[in-house]
């Protein structure tokens, strides 16, 4: 199809204002929040911003007929390049689809469009006493469609699980424009393969998510936040693990090492006790104040036995918010310490957490690099950030070896390449190592069945 | 690479492209495409510096579509100063184009010249007296709602006739206080400027040197050299003063930051630092002097925080404190969100500015306040327009006129 006709067609479908083809706009949709270099820019040829599922369907049908690559996109806050249009074509931005369609209180479910921001979704449910627990650090700005496509995790996974655990059904536009509905409100459902799970975490390579049905739980009545300081990561990890063993299940247990701590302290008023090399932020929830007080006491006891240097309970909402702000801003704060950062996202069995932290420490020493670590101590998901200057050729070489070694370390202790960010572009080289040849072949067979022309988010995962 | 472009790139180096800024940018709320956001603008700065983008009309349009309101920098986990980066990128683009566009050249030239500003003020004053202002577009000259009209309109049984007496308090008479009058106040709001002088005069001796423009409009539109010239003139002009008080948030913000522009200049560094250190916003000065409103009116006020006051100078509490003493005070939602004025932005992008303002208007209306008060002539232009749009549900005034 000639380009001008295609442009006219697309403009007819989504409206004049919602097809962008200027140089600056194409550049603006060439990146996400991953550590891929900005230049050379992976510019799409067009940015298309549909408003309805019918529009998405018609755009896909057109792209399918013409064999044009389509890269779905939410807020582009992903960390692995999932929404970077690697092969040009169309950047399909779903951020205008922002309606919360239904809050079904009787069934405790919510139906939303993909462009709804995660925090807005959470708040809308909370206003009715319902709780949507997954809360990736990016929840203020990431969209639910992106969360589902990447199967995002977040801080509360230790108690409440990840996005997948709440997705009950999806509306998905397939590569050829057909509209598929999966799942539904029935809790028990074994009708055929579990397509809902298949599309959750599919990173935009199997279909375009246009509607999401999510399960909710009752909103915990009380919530409390604690900040614990330790001399090192070993003591912090030990505290979290002893808590879990003693059946104190926090709704979040976030850990950060000394370098991460310094990075946030630069921007926020944080007074650190002398000798603090590790901070653990814990959130607990419960029925009433007495239940929280009980948990605080038990945590205090465990922490003291593990060498806790400072134990602080946030005394009001403002203090709680500040503690969470520290954690949520951490990733960006760490990134600002060096010209480049390769932020990784490995996930290991919970008991291997201290071991893998030790191994990362050794890797940092071996390759002479600064690798701060923070993450979700409660669920074994950690984020080592290799800080570096990729303009320095010698260093870049060491960085690549270090990243390889980090993945090896994760796999060696029974872990995996990614806990919540997906494979995208940045982890492709390690896929076979993690899944084996048969695993990769199986993924590719599914992809070929659903997207035979390979137009959906090409170049991702493998 | 151009030094300024390198500076811009360094300024945005901390941008992790996370997207926090997308949720707070007033312009992203009205045009939600990447280039409107701070993340988009940071990427443009880097793209230019790294050779991924060529400067052209598209780039220029994107970097000028910014209110420089700092909402992004304020919420950024890394405090990336996108506004400062944009000022540098604008300078780079202006230099490459061989100078600013005719429009900005004209605005720059008028504001550069004391004589022209004075002439403008005079002729606008004459038009105002002759009642001819309505023949000019309101973007050019807003209708001022003066204190006299305020007193007449809001005169209840408790406020019988006449202007309120100026506070007799004679605090701090030892300090040599000088009033810095911004071009906006001179041109658009002479009544408010007069009220400021009266307030200052009530607290001690005050001089009002015939100062030139603070230079912010020049800095914002790629006329950096003129900005520095004006800064030097002002530094010299106010050398004898102990305090420089201004009732314009933008002037105040610019003047307080002058020192940073002369850090590398051995001749001016110390003089600029001394100058910046003695600049105070009017509200800051009044609260510090313990100013008390002579009387409390049975009126409800709300306050719009000018970007250059709340984020530019960190002043949030003082105007509220003054208004609480002068009447009933109700805070509005998003009081510190930009009103869309932003220097000449409302003239360059009237539609986007109007949409930004519409949100502000509904937030003002929701408070039920009689008067929306602010401390910047740029904002006051917009708020006057908001008052008109609301059909007289509220008035817009400068803080010096109501306390």
Structure, described:
The complex is a heterodimer of chains A (462) and B (403). Chain A is built from 15 helices and 19 strands. Chain A is an alpha+beta fold and 462 residues long. In chain A, the strands form four sheets. In chain A, strands 12, 13, 14, 15, 16, 17, 18 and 19 form an eight-stranded antiparallel beta sheet that branches. Chain A has a five-stranded antiparallel beta sheet with strand order 5-6-10-8-9. Chain A is globular, with a radius of gyration of 22 Å. The mean pLDDT of chain A is 93. Chain B is of the alpha/beta class and 403 residues long. Chain B has 22 helices and eight strands. Chain B has helices spanning 3-12, 26-30, 38-50, 57-64, 71-75, 82-96, 102-112, 114-130, 147-153, 183-188, 190-203, 216-220, 224-237, 249-256, 258-261, 269-277, 282-288, 307-310, 317-326, 345-348, 350-367, 377-389; strands spanning 177-180, 206-207, 243-246, 279-281, 300-303, 328-329, 371-374, 395-398. In chain B, the strands form two sheets. A four-stranded parallel beta sheet of chain B has the order 2-1-3-4, sandwiched between helices. The A-B interface holds A 20, 22-25, 27-29, 31-33, 38-41, 47, 75-77, 95-96, 117, 138, 140-142, 267, 328-333, 335-336, 339, 341 and B 13-14, 16-20, 22-23, 32-35, 40, 43-44, 46-47, 50-54, 56, 58-59, 61-62, 76-79.
């Amino acid at each position: 199809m000639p380009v001008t006709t295609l442009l006219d067609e697309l403009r007819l479908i989504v409206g004049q204002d919602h097809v962008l083809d200027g140089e600056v706009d194409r550049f603006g949709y060439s990146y996400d929040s991953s550590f891929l270099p900005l230049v050379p820019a992976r510019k799409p040829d067009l940015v298309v911003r549909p408003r309805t599922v019918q529009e998405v369907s018609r755009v896909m049908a057109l792209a399918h007929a013409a064999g044009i690559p389509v890269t779905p996109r939410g807020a582009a806050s992903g960390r692995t390049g999932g929404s970077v249009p690697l092969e040009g074509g169309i950047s399909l931005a779903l951020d205008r689809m922002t309606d919360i369609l239904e809050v079904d209180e009787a069934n405790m479910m919510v139906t939303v469009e993909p462009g709804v921001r995660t925090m807005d979704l959470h708040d809308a449910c909370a206003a009715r006493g319902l709780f949507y627990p997954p809360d990736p650090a990016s929840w203020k700005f990431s969209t639910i469609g992106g969360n589902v496509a990447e199967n995002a995790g977040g801080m509360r996974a230790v108690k409440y699980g990840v996005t997948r655990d709440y997705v009950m059904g999806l509306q998905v536009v397939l590569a050829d424009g057909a509209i598929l509905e999966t799942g539904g409100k029935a809790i028990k459902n074994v009708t055929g393969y579990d397509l809902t799970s298949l599309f959750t975490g599919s990173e935009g390579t199997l279909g375009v998510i246009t509607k999401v049905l999510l399960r909710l739980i009752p909103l915990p009545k009380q919530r409390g936040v604690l900040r614990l300081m330790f001399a090192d990561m070993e003591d912090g990890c030990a505290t979290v693990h002893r808590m879990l063993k003693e059946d104190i299940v926090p709704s979040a247990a976030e850990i950060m090492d000394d370098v991460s701590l310094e990075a946030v302290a630069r921007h926020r008023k944080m007074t650190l006790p002398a000798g603090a090399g590790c901070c653990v932020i814990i959130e607990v929830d419960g029925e009433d104040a007495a239940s929280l007080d009980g948990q605080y006491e038990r945590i205090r006891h465990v922490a003291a036995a593990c060498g806790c240097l400072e134990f602080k309970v946030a005394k009001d909402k403002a203090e709680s918010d500040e503690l969470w702000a520290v954690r949520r801003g951490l990733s960006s704060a760490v990134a600002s310490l060096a010209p480049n950062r390769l932020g990784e996202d490995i996930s290991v069995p919970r008991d291997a957490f201290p071991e893998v932290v030790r191994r990362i420490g050794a890797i940092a020493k071996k390759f002479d690099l600064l690798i701060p670590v923070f993450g979700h101590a409660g669920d074994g998901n950690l984020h080592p950030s290799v800080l570096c200057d990729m303009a320095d050729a010698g260093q870049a070489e060491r960085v690549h070896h270090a990243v390889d070694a980090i993945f090896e370390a994760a796999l060696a202790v029974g872990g995996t390449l990614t806990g919540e960010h997906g494979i995208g572009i940045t982890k492709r080289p390690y896929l076979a190592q993690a899944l084996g040849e048969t695993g990769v072949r199986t993924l590719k067979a599914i992809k070929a069945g659903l997207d035979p022309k390979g137009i959906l988010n090409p170049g991702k995962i493998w | 690479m151009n030094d300024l472009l390198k500076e811009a790139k360094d300024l945005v180096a901390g941008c992790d492209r996370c997207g926090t800024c997308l949720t707070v940018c007033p312009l992203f709320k009205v045009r939600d495409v990447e280039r409107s956001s701070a993340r988009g603008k940071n990427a443009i700065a880097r793209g230019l510096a790294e050779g991924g983008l060529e400067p052209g009309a598209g780039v220029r349009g994107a970097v000028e579509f910014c209110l420089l309101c700092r909402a992004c920098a304020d919420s950024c986990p890394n405090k990336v100063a996108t506004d400062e980066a944009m000022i540098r990128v604008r300078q780079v683009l202006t230099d490459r184009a061989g100078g600013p566009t005719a429009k900005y050249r004209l605005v720059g030239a008028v504001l550069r010249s004391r004589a022209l500003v004075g002439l403008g003020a005079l002729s606008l004053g004459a038009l105002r007296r002759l009642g001819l202002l309505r023949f000019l577009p309101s973007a050019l000259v807003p209708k001022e709602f003066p204190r006299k009209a305020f007193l007449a309109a809001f005169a209840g049984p408790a406020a019988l006739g006449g202007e309120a007496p100026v506070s007799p308090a004679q605090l701090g008479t030892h300090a040599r206080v000088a009033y810095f009058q911004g071009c906006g106040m001179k041109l658009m709001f002479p009544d408010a400027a007069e009220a400021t002088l009266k307030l200052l005069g009530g607290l001690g001796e005050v001089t009002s040197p015939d100062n030139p423009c603070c230079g912010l409009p020049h800095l914002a539109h790629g006329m950096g050299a003129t900005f520095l010239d004006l800064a030097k003139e002002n530094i010299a002009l106010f050398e004898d003063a102990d305090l420089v008080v201004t009732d314009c948030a933008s002037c105040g913000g610019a003047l307080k930051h002058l020192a940073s522009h002369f850090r590398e200049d051995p001749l001016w560094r110390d003089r600029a630092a001394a100058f910046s250190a003695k600049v105070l916003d009017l509200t800051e000065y009044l609260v510090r002097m313990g100013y008390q409103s002579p009387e409390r009116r049975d009126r409800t006020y709300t306050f719009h925080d000018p970007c250059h006051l709340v984020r530019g100078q960190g002043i949030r509490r003082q105007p509220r404190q003054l208004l609480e003493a002068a009447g009933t005070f109700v805070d509005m939602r998003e009081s510190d969100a930009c009103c869309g004025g932003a220097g000449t932005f409302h003239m360059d992008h009237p539609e986007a500015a109007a949409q930004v303002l519409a949100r502000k208007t509904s937030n003002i209306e929701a408070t039920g306040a009689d008067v929306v008060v602010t401390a910047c002539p740029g904002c006051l232009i917009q708020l006057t327009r908001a008052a008109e749009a609301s059909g007289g549900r509220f008035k817009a005034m400068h803080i010096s006129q109501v306390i």
